[in-house]
Amino acid sequence: MQFKHPELLYALFLLIVPILIHLFQLRRFQKVQFTNVKFLKAVKLQTRKSSQLKKWLTLLTRMLLLACAIIAFAQPFIPNTEDFNETQETVVYLDNSYSMQATGKNGSLLNEAIQDMINNFPEDEKISLFTNTQTFRNTSLKALKNDLIQLEHSPTQLNYDALFIKGKELFSKDKSSSKNLILISDFQQKDNPVTFETDSTINLKLVQPKSALVSNVSIDSVYVANSNSETLDLNVKLSNQGEAIENITVSLFNDDVLLAKNAVDITESSEATFSVSNEAVINGKLVIEDAGLQYDNSFYFNINSKPKIKVLAINENTDDNFLKRIYTDDEFEYNSFKINNLNFNIIPDQNLIVLNELESISDALRTTLVSFKNDGGYILTIPSKEINLNTYNQIFNNSNTPQYNSLSSQQKRITTINYNHPLLANAFYSKVSNFQYPKVETSYSFSSNANSVLSYEDGNAFLVGSNGFYAFSSALNDENSNFKNSPLIVPVLYNIGKQSLKLPQLYYSIGQPNTIAINAVLGQDDILTLGTDENTVIPLQKTFSKTVVLETTDYPVNAGIFNVKNESEVLQNLSFNYNREESNLSYLDIKNNTNVSVNESLATTINDIKSSSTINALWKWFVIFALVFLIIEILLLKYLK
């Protein structure tokens, strides 16, 4: 037993006062005349015995009464735990990702957690709180209440390792305090199981509220399936977690105008198809009605006017028909000139320059090409069988590309495809390990095989490239190679052409790095803005002679259609959507984590923390005892003769 005010126990020394009074009382007795002396002696003897007993019982009850009163004022208690005297520090992580929209017992999981915090944390208790988007250090619930009520969902979630590290950083350096880290999340099933490092200085408490949601349908993506001169087919991919659903309606809007509706049956996944005009400019919005998570029921996309990509082939004495068949008029503006008839003034206006088997590169052409490359243009080099190595290597050196070495006359087969190269991303449905290998009769070796796209069977590169500069190691004419007849030539050259002008995609994902090229010629001090009528920001941008490249990661934070403006002029519309990772209804089983407290209710966790710093107060019992002894004393004085 311990005391809240132990200094008051010194008052117990006052118990000596009633002892002194009882031992040294100077009470005078009144003489009474009585005739029978024998009877008087008997009365005196009986009276003295009963008087002594009454005195000692009264003394005892008074001492116990005073002792109980003094002890009650000292407020005795019994602590619930050994560390009750330690200063309590509490850091709370509140997961506000979109998966916390799932319905619990009393509304969404996020709202349940917020209400538990408001109802169970003392208003003036110091805590630190962080979410996926905000951090509040060393504040109180009273100051946080409005922020919690207005807390919005976030499209991204911190990974679990980052949660633990960030939580540790919010604690003070006081080693004597008891540190409680509370992580409130639905703990969605991610790629890796959740584990936390062992730290004896931190009491880690996990709160995993349970969702009553058992089914969720989401719009995952949209893509162009087929396209012709008049129409294009938009395929909408849907996914479902839960029981199969029949006849779910998908609506297509252009701004606020309903264009079409489609109904599909879905088990695990399904697709809905819409046909729209190939010439139409659409600010699209797809909508489904689903009782599950709400954030993934809408999907935004844009179909903008499509500028043609300008491709210029510079030839020596070779055929370029294979280039014409790839860079067709529906997507490209293809031009071809002999080196002797080339007007250098048209080079800056191009997006892709193909050096088709030139024997050498003049200083004037090299200077123009370097300037073109520095301005964001793409260059593809196809060497002839006999070239001036020095002139080629000079332009390679300016572009940080591996240089040509000596010519080899050994026949080689092209056997390796680098599927991880950015040029071939999403170019193949599956990886092919056995195909009809193209071959070359003669080839140049590169000084390095870094950034290889295609390689020979001996490991040397056939095609290398990065940052807008690509180079073949061999001539592609029919006498030297059959690569022009290989299926590989189409995706390789087509993707080089498509990437030379980064046309805006149908949509972009929020929270991921996006690089977006906008066709615009800006003045020296002009900048582009991205936003809506209510909110506008200036994204990171790089200005070239014909385009401006926007780079976005953290903005926008909300899904929707946004305007790209040069002052008041709208140049283009861009759509951004939330990542669909939060649509997953599979959750981790965190109860197997050792040295971790796991609860489904935040209220239970808060009460556990409180109990470690609370006490069993005993002062009321001592007040009761004092009253009991007071009553006993009154009864003794009244009835004991």
UniProtKB/TrEMBL annotation:
NCBIfam families: two_anch
Key words of the record: Membrane, Transmembrane, Transmembrane helix
The organism's place on the tree of life at top rank: Bacteria
The keyword Thylakoid is annotated on this UniProt entry: no
Aerotolerance regulator N-terminal domain ranges (all copies): 1-76
Name this polypeptide is given: BatA domain-containing protein
Pfam families: BatA (PF07584)
Transmembrane regions listed in the UniProt entry: 6-24, 56-78, 618-640
